[in-house]
Amino acid sequence: MTDDRAPSAPAADGFPPAPGSHDPEALRRRALDALLTARARTATLTDSVEDGELTAQHSPLMSPLVWDLAHIGNQEEQWLLRAVGGRQALRPEIDGLYDAFEHPRSARPSLPLLAPAEARTYASDVRGRALDILEAAPLHEGGRPLERAGFAFGMIAQHEQQHDETMLITHQLRSGPAALTAPAPPDPTDAGSLPGEVLVPAGPFTMGTSAEPWALDNERPAHRREVAAFHLDTSPVTCGAYQRFMADGGYTDPRWWAPEGWDMVREHGLTAPLFWHRDAGQWLRRRFGVTEPVPEDEPVLHISWYEADAYARWAGRRLPTESEWEKAARHDPATGRSLRYPWGDTDPTPEHANLGQRHLRPARAGAYPAGRAPSGAGQLIGDVWEWTSSDFLPYPGFVAFPYREYSDVFFGPGHKVLRGGSFAVDQVACRGTFRNWDLPVRRQIFSGFRTARDA
């Protein structure tokens, strides 16, 4: 691990390090809170269904929930107990079973997986030992790279939260009655007065980070990007706007589609976003076991990159590049700084963004005024992952850490970048620099989009 991957003073980024990033005890408390929050959510997702539902495969696109549960424990054992703590392996014989690269999701039900009770016991046993290691770890800047600023503990908390989002996708794909409930998100207060788009002026900004202590390798290092002026939607594209595309023959006109996307439409007979269906002249959707009318003013969800791209072409616009998205979300023209989040450098609160499975749906377009960026764009963090036009590529000076399989093996034109997080993302795994990526055909993920145009 080189120095540009360590937590540092606010040199390249232009924003201060995360609160407490130089205080070992504050970092220890932050890591403890992140680990406990993630485990409580894992318990909610796995305790809400019977064992038969944990071991079933609800879609060939997803693992059985019980695989995710034990995989979470196994990754924690490998990185916190073995790599950081130097402990003897607890269950080395299961490493291969829970290697995500060794077994595709569709094949995992046939593996000799740990049963639900054994998986819970294993994950709990690992966690107890991991917390002992956290209590004694130095976490100071001069320490080993994995320990420095609590990086390994933050990485594992992010890993668990990412699998919690994956398990929430599985909950959406499963059939049967609802197993999860949550209150509705807050309504917007001034949506009617918001402009349809904002202008982001031309100029350079600092993209990525070298100072955020728990940033993952693909977010690093901080570097300057020059971006031409552009207009960006103030809010994500809504279900109502998307229905106008559908009503205008959007799924039947090849003019709007990339060739591979048009092939996907014809092969699968697509006519609407995933989980939508038409009944008695009304569009309905299935959401976590409940069938309900599609809300017109809510960001559209479960959209592939090809669908987002087709809509943008139909609307005479385009998807923003990843650089454009991040500049709109982070750049403060008054100071020239890049912020940690659209609203500033402080961690998210429920007033800023729809995160952490607090709600089981996006908020209506225009919600969370406290979370808007200096550009005027809102809902850039939380609600829906937003497709960009960009391929997933390394930043200049990228260094894989702590293993190639997190980012490096996915770089290339096959994966498109998503930004901003969704209602299913926890704040520990979502920030202004955070990068997600997926295949352009993916629809089961909590993805939406907003559009842009040249100024």
Keywords:
455 residues, alpha+beta, Four Helix Bundle (Hemerythrin (Met), subunit A), paralog of FGE (formylglycine-generating enzyme), four-stranded mixed beta sheet, three-stranded antiparallel beta sheet, 9 helices, 29% helix, 13% strand
DSSP E strands, number: 14
Question: What's the number of structural domains?
Answer: 2
The SSE order reads HHHHHEEEEHHEEEHHEEEEEEE
User: What fold name stands as the CATH topology of the largest domain?
Assistant: paralog of FGE (formylglycine-generating enzyme)
SS strand fraction: 5-15%
What does this structure look like?
- The chain contains nine helices and 14 strands.
- It is α+β, with helices and mostly antiparallel strands and 455 residues long.
- It has two domains: 171 residues, Four Helix Bundle (Hemerythrin (Met), subunit A) (Up-down Bundle), CATH 1.20.120; 189 residues, paralog of FGE (formylglycine-generating enzyme), CATH 3.90.1580.
- Strands 12-11-10-13 form a four-stranded mixed beta sheet.
- Strand 8 and strand 9 form a beta hairpin.
